[in-house]
Write a structure and sequence with these properties.
With 379 residues, the protein is an alpha+beta fold. The protein has eleven helices and 16 strands. The strands form four sheets. It has an eight-stranded mixed beta sheet with strand order 5-16-13-6-10-9-7-8. A four-stranded mixed beta sheet has the order 1-14-15-4. The longest helix has 20 residues. The radius of gyration is 23 Å and the shape is globular.
Length: 379
């Protein structure tokens, strides 16, 4: 059934997609009591798939903070050159009566193809026959453990180091928020092609395809609030004017988050906590709303800590990088939400036992680069 839905452009919202695959939208589902008691295989599969999809949406980490959208097109068009320059805006025309020539920006097409996320696991027939013993792993325990493993894998792929060029895995935020300057600096540990996200060539001038990177030439630097301000000053001009600081987030590792707290708590005027909620639409701020997470913030932007944030600089490592993301222009695009399937059929699975698999078809997607920034080379 699954691939009958994928990539057909039928879904306008992620809830529509979830309802088609699961029979209901599980965005608010956190845990299903005793799912192993369900006797119908199809229902059981839907429960496990819906459970991991719901937890993916609501996790207080990078995966939960990014909005989920159904797959609608495999690529974007990006403006590579403006129609005017600041020095000579072209609106005036002569009185000669001639029709003005067409003026338009220059576009580049970037293809974004979905990736299959999958984790397979099995248990032998001999082990399954001994499930009643206390010292033998039960199949249901294995299914539940692998669900957590898949969630961790998903988050780690989103936060992989930029030199991890993906083949079957998703692109990473470290590659999304990248610049040719990182490669051009000899002391940095990135090589050519390391930040060519979605096949985009960033090995030469990449003015339209570059995020802003404060990396001190790859030389170690101590974290300071001025670095975060420097990132904001360079990326704010590319934010949507009507939204300002709304729908933005800082993303960093726990060690950097602690360091930010030490710097921020010395400022008595600073409001260091703000209520946010994680859901299918990503992270959103909800002043005055109960049952939300209290997150630290800087400049009115919530700080999301995630232990998988990369910390590479030059030839060694320090504390985690600090990203600032415009969530209006980066999201997780899903052609198929997480599904769960299992089989005892030896000829199909190739094992004398039972095999299960979690799988989804998805990719990190974005339609702008210059609205995102990061601070790196931190110690």
């Amino acid at each position: 059934m699954a691939f009958n839905f994928a990539s057909k452009g039928w879904f306008k919202t992620i809830e529509d997609m979830e309802t088609a695959y699961y029979g209901y939208a599980p965005s608010s589902l956190v845990v299903k009591d005793a799912p192993v008691l369900t006797t119908t295989t199809g229902v059981r599969n839907a429960i496990y798939g819906a459970q991991i999809q719901a937890q993916l949406n609501m996790a207080s980490n990078t995966a939960g903070a990014l909005a989920k959208k159904p797959w609608d097109k495999s690529g974007v068009r990006l403006v590579t050159a403006k129609t005017f320059t600041d020095a000579s805006p072209a609106l005036g025309q002569t009185k000669g009566g001639a029709t003005p020539a067409t003026v338009k920006p220059t576009f580049a097409v970037i293809n974004i193809e979905p990736k299959t996320m999958a984790r397979t696991f099995e248990m032998s027939s001999a082990e399954l026959a001994m499930e009643g013993k206390d010292d033998v792993l039960q199949w249901t325990d294995l299914v539940d453990y692998m669900r957590q493993d898949v969630l961790n894998d998903f988050d780690q792929q989103l936060l992989a180091y930029a030199d991890t060029v993906p083949t079957v895995n998703m692109e990473s935020i470290d590659r999304l928020v990248g610049s040719h300057d990182e490669v051009a600096e000899a002391t940095n540990s990135l090589d050519a092609n390391d930040i060519d996200i979605w096949g985009l060539d960033r090995d030469a001038a990449d003015s339209y395809a570059a995020g802003y990177v404060n990396f001190n030439g790859g030389v170690a630097q101590s974290l300071a609030l001025s670095q975060a301000d420097d990132v904001l000053a360079h990326i704010m001009p590319f934010w949507d004017n009507t939204k300002g600081f709304a729908n933005k987030m800082w993303l960093t590792k726990y060690d950097t988050n602690m360091r930010l707290g030490q710097l921020i708590n010395t400022q008595f005027r600073h409001v260091d906590k703000m209520p946010v909620q994680f859901g299918v639409n990503g992270i959103q701020t909800f002043p005055g709303v109960d049952h939300s997470n209290m997150m630290a913030s800087y400049q009115g932007i919530p700080i999301v800590p995630d232990d998988y944030v990369d910390n590479h600089y030059a030839a060694t490592t320090g504390i985690g990088k600090l990203y600032c993301l415009d969530l209006d222009h980066v999201w997780i695009q899903e052609a198929m939400p997480f599904q769960y399937a299992e089989s005892d059929e030896m000829l199909a699975t190739g094992v004398l036992g039972r095999r299960g698999i979690y799988h989804a078809v998805t990719e990190l997607s974005a339609n702008m680069f210059k609205c995102h920034g990061k601070v790196m080379a931190l110690i």
